[in-house]
Amino acid sequence: MKRYFANLLCLPVVLFTALASAGEPALLRMATTTSTENSGLFNVIQPVFEQLLDIRVHVIAVGTGKALELGRRGDVDVVLVHAKAAEEAFVNAGYGVARHEIMYNDFVIVGPPGDPAGVRGMQGAGKALAGIAATSSTFVSRGDDSGTHKKENTLWQQANIRPAGGWYRQVGQGMGKTLQIAGELAGYTLVDRGTWLAYRANSPLQLLVSGGEELLNPYGIIAVSPQRFPDINFAAVQRLIDWFASPEAHALIAGYKVDGEQLFYPVAE
Amino acid sequence: MDSLTAATAESFRLLFSGDAALWVIIFTSFSVSVKAILIAAPFAFLVAFMMAHLRYPGRRVMIAGFSALQSIPAVVVGLTVYLVFSRSGPLGDLKLLFTHTSMVIGQTLLSLPLLVALSHAAFQAADRRVWETSITLGATPSRAFMTLVHEVRFGLTAALIAGFGRIIAEVGCSMMVGGNILGYTRNIPTAIALETTKGEFAQAIALGMVLLTMALILNGLLAFFQGRGVMTS
Q1: Domain ranges in chain B?
Q2: What is the third-level CATH fold of B28-187?
Q3: Which of A42, A193, A214, A219 is the most buried if burial means most Cβ atoms within 10 Å?
Q4: Which ipTM was obtained for this model?
């Protein structure tokens, strides 16, 4: 109720809320990817670490590109994303303190049951993408500079293909929406396994290609630099990062299952 | 078709089972938009009155300006507020980004041009003699202003409702400056956008129904306040 009335008065009241909330847990802002949030993992782990570390986390779910941009501008305290190269660039440029790999899962290629490009069961994502391009079968790309989109671009590059033409659709949407569009268009798409498991019950598509080193999807957590943005709550962020390395966190992450399948694999650094 | 009926049935269950998460979202929407309208309206009424009553250079440019601003996309307002309140932006030290306050500010700006333009139309249609008579009878300017406001209250009510309708339903600005944070800045439109991408149509439909019901009630109120809805004779 106190908070409600504080908000009611609005502008001059920011100070008021700051005073009123002095006894409350530290507030962290975490930018993370839509795939992390859509997977449902946070619903399980967030209450646990908030309680244990006495922090309150506001989760802002956007694409990896936007999440890193929020970090670069100092609008969040911590980022949890999946695009190793971009994350390392973020740290090297001095925006982040250090990258800690906390878990991974993998990407899969899904497509229509009819499989016009004949990629079902292929070993190697590159070969499958080459097949899709060669037959000009519809491929739906995230096209939003997200971690998944960056991964997709890398895979095309490795296959020496520059995807273009009417069959290649960049939709600029989150993972869930992209899966839906691919389903409606009976097209192929690249999706992280977590989102796929969460959505497959409602999707007409099928898992066609999976496995292999190149489809691995590592997630990293990075504290935004307190040198650059002094009001970042670095101590609380560090507690959170340490928690992700704890046996308790590993057990929770490894134990999170959708339809009986494990979604994420914790990494011991 | 089956999925549509199933989702609709599920949405009714969500609404009437008192699903706490759903009602937090609804409360956020209304608390933010009502505050925004309460801040914007007095300012808009004064500006509109000034434009209709006084003569000064640049008046017509101002009128055209507010009219044109009515069509500004919500995302552009959102982007502007984001850039201003981002920690790297000019007002970053206030730490208002991703809070209710920044959403209120965004929606206030968004509703202002519409409120100004519509209430200007209302004041413009008023009889100047209302003001002059009040002053002659010894009323203070603020008292005369209130008399005039009372005179054009139907037009101003319509402006308020149109303004509220614009901001309660907008998604772009709230998403950008609010961040769609669960249990905090997630409001009806951003929740609908999110639940749709997640394929959770039941919650999206439930929230859509709340918005529609509110629109119906607001328009019912408008019809009521407009009295019999006929010209005075």
Answers
A1: 28-187
A2: MetI-like fold (1.10.3720)
A3: A219
A4: 0.71
